[in-house]
Amino acid sequence: MHLSESEDPAVELPSDPDELPDEEYAEQLFQMSSRLPFAMRSAAEQEGYRVDLDTRGFVFNADPGALVRFLDIGTRPSNLR
C-alpha cells in the first residue's frame, strides 16, 4: 500500500507493472507484492475489479477510499479460512 497526497488516481490491484505510473519505487513495490489468493481475487471481483492470476495485493497512490477497499478485500471473514 502506497499512500499519497497526489491528485493522480490510485492504481488498485494491478496485474502488470506497465499499469503503474513512472514513479521511482512503483515497480519495486509491485515486485514485492504477493499475488492475490483465490478467495481475495473472488472478493475483488465482487467489488468490480478485473483480476487474473497475476493480480497483486498492491495499491499505488491510494486515497482513503482505496485504502478501505484494499483492507476490506484482504480481511473479509470468508477470506480468513
Features:
single chain; mainly alpha; 3 helices; 2 strands; globular
Give a brief description.
Helix content is 35%, strand content 5%. It has 81 residues and is mainly alpha-helical.
Main structural class = mainly alpha
Average pLDDT score: 86
Order of helices and strands: EHHEH
- Kindly report the spatial arrangement of strands forming the biggest sheet: 1-2
Overall geometric form:
globular
Protein described:
- It contains three helices and two strands.
- It has helices at residues 26-32, 38-46, 64-75, and strands at residues 11-12, 59-60.
- A two-stranded antiparallel ribbon has the order 1-2.
- The chain is globular and about 35 Å long.
Secondary structure layout plus pairing:
Blueprint: E1 11-12, H1 26-32, H2 38-46, E2 59-60, H3 64-75
